[in-house]
Amino acid sequence: MSEFDPSLRIIGCGNILMGDDGVGVRVVEALEKMGAGIPEDIDILDAGVCGLDILNLLEDVDKVIIVDSMVGSGSTKRGSILRFELEDLLNKDHEDVGIFSAHDISISDILSIGKHVQDLPEIIVFGIEIGEVKEELSMDLSSEVLDAVERVIPYIIEEMVGTS
């Protein structure tokens, strides 16, 4: 790996037109605004609602941090932040505690497919509870989810430091 290849990629997922579902994208926007505080060998990407295309973004790096919205079954409050490692997501037991993606295909399903078709880097996922997927168009985040954008950044920075 050359000195210009990223060792870490941070990926924000979500649809910014669907309110809280866009939280992952809002987190990467906040990280990009930090500018000088982010080392050059870290990629920060807005993946939108890319589905299986995210597998392409898992290549050529040592570690990936994914930030996405999640919908629980009432065991977590809106704005809660949960951290998962790859094995946590490949273990279907997490569904028993009510952790589901807010998208058509979940991150755990994508990673399960990825494990069978490619070598995966170290993967950390921060899921931010949004409570429910709203059907009306809005670019606004609820106050709880907006607060979670700021609260998750130190956790991401901690993962960055652990990579260096």
UniProtKB/TrEMBL annotation:
<keyword id="KW-0378">Hydrolase</keyword>
<dbReference type="Pfam" id="PF01750">
    <property type="entry name" value="HycI"/>
</dbReference>
<dbReference type="GO" id="GO:0008047">
    <property type="term" value="F:enzyme activator activity"/>
</dbReference>
<protein>
    <submittedName>
        <fullName>Hydrogenase maturation protease</fullName>
        <ecNumber>3.4.23.-</ecNumber>
    </submittedName>
</protein>
<dbReference type="InterPro" id="IPR023430">
    <property type="entry name" value="Pept_HybD-like_dom_sf"/>
</dbReference>
<dbReference type="InterPro" id="IPR000671">
    <property type="entry name" value="Peptidase_A31"/>
</dbReference>
<dbReference type="GO" id="GO:0004175">
    <property type="term" value="F:endopeptidase activity"/>
</dbReference>
<keyword id="KW-0645">Protease</keyword>
<dbReference type="GO" id="GO:0016485">
    <property type="term" value="P:protein processing"/>
</dbReference>
